[in-house]
Design a protein that fits this description.
By secondary structure, the chain is mostly helical. The chain folds into two domains: about 1-80, no CATH class; about 95-233, no CATH class. It has 13 helices and no strands. Helix 5 (about 80-85) packs across helix 11, helix 10 packs antiparallel against helix 12 and helix 11 crosses helix 12. The chain is elongated, with a radius of gyration of 22 Å. This is Reverse transcriptase. It comes from Loxostege sticticalis (Beet webworm moth).
Length: about 230
Amino acid sequence: MAIRAARGYRTMSYEAACVLVGSIPWDIEASALASLFYWREEALARGLRPAPREIEVRRSELCQRAIDEWALRLEQPSFGVRTVEAVRPVLSQWLARQHGLLTFRLTQVLSGHGCFGGYLCRIARREPSAVCHHCDDCADEDAQHTLEGCPAWAEERAELCAVVGDDLSLPTVVKAMVESETSWNAVQAFAEQVMLSKEAAERERENTTDLAIRRRRTGRRRRAYGLHLQPPQ
């Protein structure tokens, strides 16, 4: 459900998807709700009836405690490390922000799961190599190369840097997105423009290639093809 809410690929990790959509893991949230329930039951057993204001204060305290516990757990993520490490330093602000929506293409840039050579080669198994198809400088393209280094997107990157600054490391970009709606919109605009162009180029490769690995597969054909793939190392 977190992946659906993030509008991401199904290959995203649990940790990354929950962080992006701000969904506290259910076991932590359940523990906080149980603590609130037992606190109220104990008060009633003593003949006390907590006022709505007291309940709200207690709820807020438990919510913050849950976020702190989640942040502690995120110090050692199993997967989605790039995304988790970018959001974790500003986790509370990320959860409390009043602006910014995730889109399909923005999530690709933030998660690294999308139209990137490395992902298409090693995870999606749609490319024979991980090279960047838009420049000659990268033999193993990832989301950070697209965001920070690929010369093909220099114009779009210049517009982004004019808003968020020259440091395009993901933690810095995420911090800027949290602090300013203008920065969020600038990153989203970059993602929409660049990823749309990259997706169009991928469709073109699918339609003009003789390589079976690049041909578009759906339904039964896709599942049959998947049986012949070796598991990722």
